[in-house]
Amino acid sequence: MVSSRLAGDGRPARRRSIRMREAKRIALIAHDNCKDDLLDWARYNRGTLAGHQLFATGTTGEVLGSELDLEITRFFSGPLGGDQQVGAGIAEGRIDFVIFFWDPLEPHPHDVDVKALLRIAVVYNIPIACTRASADFMLSSPLMREEYERLFNDPSDKVRRLTPTGLP
What percent of the chain has pLDDT over 90? Predict the structure, then answer.
């Protein structure tokens, strides 16, 4: 499908889509001072989460897996590359949805990774909940229980346009 939105060089941007199945692939992430809040939220929503494929970074995955008795695929800890692994999963179409409880008022040594993850989620039009309220609204949406065609502008058009010529 082609959109009327321009790619930046006068050509229409190419649109791509990824079908999200009924069982979404959800990444769960929480900074240290937000882990208890995410655990409390996940306990409350355990029944709903059990119907989806769950992923989590480092300690968050360890805590959620043991406390909720759910199968959770674990990535590395966020500062050790876990946020980047989630971002790669988004770009490769292996992650459909992100719940990321983070504290914007607390400095983190891997702030650049957090910003990169948020950027890639927007580029690929991934639903991302960064607060308990947004997670509640998104998880309770009727769209969580059905297939959904996620549309996004193909980022490779812009990458090609911005890449200097002559590079391999």
Answer: 65
Angle at 78 between CA 30 and CA 138, to 5 degrees: 40
102, 130 contact by CB (below 8 A): yes
From 9, 36, 37, 83, active-site residue:
83
State yes or no: is 32 an active-site residue: no
- Write down the number of H helices and E strands in the chain: 7, 8
Write the pLDDT tens digit of every residue in 39-86: 999 999 999 999 999 999 999 999 999 999 999 999 999 888 999 999
Instruction: Tell me how far apart the alpha carbons of residues 126 and 123 are, in angstroms, rounded to a whole number.
Output: 8
Query: CA 34 to CA 154: how far, in whole Å?
Result: 33
At 146 the three-state DSSP class reads coil
Round to whole Å and give the CA distance between 149 and 21.
9
Nearest to 119 by CA among 151, 79, 86, 93: 86
Quote the CA–CA distance of 39 and 28 in Å, as a whole number.
10
C-alpha separations of 55 from 30, 64, 96, 100 in Å: 12, 10, 11, 12
* DSSP reduced 3-state for 5: strand
Enter the tokens of residue 126. Answer: 């991934």
Look up the pTM and report it.
0.84
